[in-house]
Amino acid sequence: MSLIVQKFGGSSVADAERVMNVARIVTDTFAKGNDVVVVVSAQGDTTDDLIEKAQEINPNATRREKDMLLAAGEQISISLLAMAIEKLGYHAVSLLGWQAGFETTSSHTSARIKRVDASRIRRELDKKNIVVVAGFQGLSKYGDITTLGRGGSDTSAVAIAASMHADLCQIYTDVEGVYTADPRKVKNAQKLKEISYDEMLELATLGAQVLNNRSVEMAKKYNIELEVLSSMAKASGTIVKEKTKMEKMLISGVAKDTEVARVSVTGIPNLPGLAFKMFSKLSAKDINVDIILQSIGHDGKKDISFTVAKDRGQETVDCLKDYMENLGAAEVLYDDNVAKISIVGAGMESHAGVATKMFEALYDAQINIQMISTSEIKVSVLIDAVDADKAVSAIHAKFFD
Ligand code: ASP
Ligand code: MG
Questions:
Q1: 316 and 220 in contact (C-beta within 8 Å)?
Q2: Which residue's alpha carbon is at the smallest distance from atom 4 of ligand 1?
Q3: Which CATH architecture has domain 3-173?
Q4: pTM exceeds 0.70, yes or no
């Protein structure tokens, strides 16, 4: 007998029919003699709708109250799924995050899981219940409901799998697995059989949107093998694990991130310490900086450009404008009509010319590159947002056709 954790995203439980479909997957797994813990997200667009409701009443509501509201979405789906399982003749119990033992930090709307005390889950499994747990939520040490940040249910599932030493953690979603590019946009996108944690982590953070990046980080840390698969189609998915035995593909995917903005600070004196001063202002505000480019100094001046998440863009600009005089800078420029396109692949480490191939694809498509950054397994470029889809297709075709 194995312990299997199965997570279903919002689209997999969007309506009554899909909830029944999930109940069938879950009970099939249970009927094969496994213990099953199911983690679910809120139905369809519920979380977005709840955010809108809050916005209508008070855009400046405290984050504690936002969490209280948002956590309600998952309460609906766990109870409905438990009812669906009962209807199929099996026993189920639904548990909210705190009932399932999720202890988190108290940073509302972006809490981190500190521990999962799985004793209640174990007791319910011992009673031969299928346990249905609300993803995305927990309890702070002050006894308040917290949420883990958007897409946090993946992390909830991995946390349960880690703390209970599950044999398998399956992440069911509306795509059949991890692809070499977004299959809805790129014709020849191929489903990957396997991918390593590191590659998946890059793709997750880069906007591939199949798995939440914190869930992959946690899976890597506790060595939990993940299977990403579709709840609608009966096909094998993609395995995410430490080392893949697949012959190393040169690159494993092309990702697009349009939630980025470019900030440039111009006319900074060409002296030591100014980059430090500037970025420490941002890190004090917990603003994450990604691609950084510094121009070569001329006439005693230099420019520094970098990218940040779009939703922190205004804050970044305000913070730097306030500090411009101290820096001796001339101007702070902002552009959020940009996109970051990246290729990821463990094969890059041992092959030359990968970046060149990417740049050639962009040149063939007549797309201008604004910024470039690289790591051992990734090359990213910043381009005009209007060219984003065209760039992904061109690069994908270059590597995979
Ligand atoms: N319902 C939450 C969200 O939409 C959590 C999740 O789906 O994982 O972000
Ligand atoms: Mg979701």
A1: no
A2: 47
A3: 3-Layer(aba) Sandwich (3.40)
A4: yes
Q: How far apart are CA 299 and CA 327, in angstroms?
A: 16
Q: Which amino acid is at 305?
A: S
Residue-wise pLDDT for 50-74, tens only, equals 999 999 999 999 999 999 999 999 9
- Report the distance separating Cα 379 and Cα 355, nearest Å: 7
Residues 171, 226 contacting (CB under 8 angstroms): yes
DSSP state of 58: -
Pick the closest to residue 341 from 398, 396, 265, 281 (CA basis). Answer: 396
Residue type, 16: A
223-265 per-position pLDDT tens digit: 999 999 999 998 999 999 997 766 567 899 999 999 999 999 9
CA distance 346 to 179: 15
CB 44 less than 6 A from any atom of ligand 1: no
Distance of alpha carbon 17 from alpha carbon 106, whole angstroms: 36
Report yes or no: 92 and 82 within 8 Å, Cβ to Cβ. yes
Q: How many CA atoms lie within 13 A of 224 on its CB side?
A: 32
- For residue 245, the model assigns a pLDDT of 65
pLDDT at 350 over 90: no
User: pLDDT by residue (tens digit) across 288-333?
Assistant: 999 999 998 888 999 999 999 999 999 999 999 999 888 899 999 9
What gap in Å lies between CA 265 and CA 294, rounded to an integer?
10
**Contact yes or no for 58/66 (Cβ under 8 A):** no
**What are the structure tokens assigned to 111, written together?**
């809490």
Taking CA atoms only, the protein residue closest to ligand 1 atom 8 is: 151
- Contacting residues for 282 by C-beta, under 8 A, at least 6 apart: 289, 308, 316, 319, 320
Q: Say how many Å lie between the CA of residue 212 and the centre of ligand 1.
A: 10
Mutational test site, ligand 1, from 11, 74, 150, 209, max ligand atoms within 8 Å of CB:
150
User: Strand, coil or helix: what is 290?
Assistant: strand
Tell me the residue type at 343: I
Structure tokens at 328: 């001796």
